Amino acid sequence: MAPKGPYKLVTVNTAPERAKRLVGRVVEELKDRYTIEHVANCETEEADQILSTARSLRPGIKTYAIPHGLQVERGPDAVVEHLLEKVPQLLES
Q1: Is the pTM of this model over 0.90?
Q2: Largest CA distance in the chain
Q3: How far apart are CA 61 and CA 33, in angstroms?
Q4: How far is CA 24 from its chain centroid?
Q5: Are the C-beta atoms of 20 and 49 separated by less than 8 Å?
Q6: Are the CB atoms for 80 and 25 separated by under 8 Å?
Q7: Over the stretch 1-27, which tens digit does the pLDDT of each residue have?
Q8: Cα 9 to chain center, whole Å?
Q9: Is 60 helix (H, G, I), strand (E, B) or coil?
Q10: How far from each other are the two terminal CA atoms of the chain, in whole angstroms?
């Protein structure tokens, strides 16, 4: 069966290269099930405006935030594991 998608992903992170690496790992792990394209990273200050615009253009857009402190407390592998659990749930909902 062909992967579902494509899904466009925008991250909000003050460390865009780290976000790109972590998302790349998630995308690679899920590529047989979903086609996910990481299209951009924005800074926290831009996030509210971008989300508002996205919601006006595409009602029902899905958003998700990793738990605060997960990266610091448990490291990047924990973030990837968390996203591998949550992203499919989000895409299927």
Answers
A1: no
A2: 40
A3: 20
A4: 10
A5: no
A6: yes
A7: 899 999 999 998 888 899 999 999 999
A8: 5
A9: coil
A10: 19
